[in-house]
Design goal:
The chain has about 160 residues and is of the alpha/beta class. The protein is about 30% helix and about 20% strand. It has a six-stranded mixed beta sheet, covered by helices on one side. Strand 2 and strand 3 (about 55-60) form a beta hairpin.
Length: about 160
């Protein structure tokens, strides 16, 4: 098993969500990594498509993986991500250890594999949590005077 830092796994998660893989169903047009807001959790990586959101929590040790389930935002329902993955170094945890409601990604030297497919979650709590995250992003853009620029038509768009 190759040792990775948390930062390295977060970078791999970003690239994976941006589409550097063969799983087109997980390619996202917009990805945030380690974004801190007033949302109920601060994801390591979260990607958005027009039809869903995909959250990735990166864990570099078994102890961190095991402790994650005890975090307060894991106990409640107001969470981020229609689909949720743990990303770990290949072989660090067994597929059977994947918590209910989660998928599992293994990081290998040159690729990422899906070991457990996640179920799709759709409820109002996810929408509310993600609304909080998007509000934070837009508020920052407004405070920095970027909203007028964002409202301009895209070049070449009809």
């Amino acid at each position: 098993m190759i040792p990775y830092t948390h930062t390295e796994l977060v970078q791999r998660a970003r690239r994976w969500l941006e589409g550097s893989h063969k799983y087109g169903n997980y390619t996202c047009g917009f990805v945030l990594t380690e974004y801190h807001s007033y949302a109920p959790e601060q994801p390591d990586a979260i990607g958005f498509r027009s039809d869903k959101s995909i959250l990735i929590e990166c864990k570099v040790s078994r102890a961190d993986f095991k402790a994650d389930g005890h975090k307060s935002h894991r106990q409640g329902r107001r969470r981020l991500g229609n689909e949720r993955f743990y990303m770990v170094p290949a072989g660090m945890v067994a597929r059977e250890e994947t918590p209910e409601g989660w998928g599992l990604l293994f990081v290998h030297d040159k690729r990422v594999t899906i070991e457990v497919e996640p179920p799709y979650h759709s409820d109002l709590e996810i929408q509310a949590a993600e609304h909080s995250l998007f509000y934070s992003l837009l508020r920052r853009a407004e405070l920095r005077g970027l909203i007028p620029r964002l409202l301009e038509p895209l070049a070449g768009a009809k």
